Amino acid sequence: MNRITVRIADWHADNADLRRIREAVFVVEQEVPPELEWDADDADAVHFLAFEDEFAVGAARLLPDGRIGRVSVLKDWRGLHIGEALMQAAIAEAERRGLGRQFLTAQVYAIPFYERLGFRIDSEEFLEAGIPHVDMVRDGA
């Protein structure tokens, strides 16, 4: 397997990669309306990109309040623990910033993935963009 790395991205300099990944996963695959995918939170978020060698294959973001979101991995790279690497980077950065409690809105199918990372369900199931979700929270370091 080629080398997978994750780094903090710059919303402006890395915008093409961030948009390419999120458009492919959320807008095209999951049919999330573009007006729901792109929001004002992107400007204030810490963004993360996962790379296979020099090619960006995954993205995520961390908001100033500890909310992690927009975790996305291109279809051909799933199953390689890239989502986990993105989440570990986001959790570590949150804790570095003193955000010991992280939270997210998870698609129901992904609950076991987030539970393995220490998150627990914190809401009833609800629909967001027509997709079943739950709120999850992690009380870290």
From TrEMBL:
Residue stretches making up the N-acetyltransferase domain: 4-141
Molecular function in Gene Ontology: acyltransferase activity, transferring groups other than amino-acyl groups
Signal peptide (from-to): none
Domain of life per record: Bacteria
Keyword Acyltransferase: yes
InterPro entries (UniProt xref): Acyl_CoA_acyltransferase, Bact_Acetyltransf, GNAT_dom
Keyword tags: Acyltransferase, Transferase
Coiled coil: none
CDD domains per record: NAT_SF (cd04301)
Protein name (database record): Predicted N-acyltransferase, GNAT family
Organism of this sequence: Geopseudomonas guangdongensis
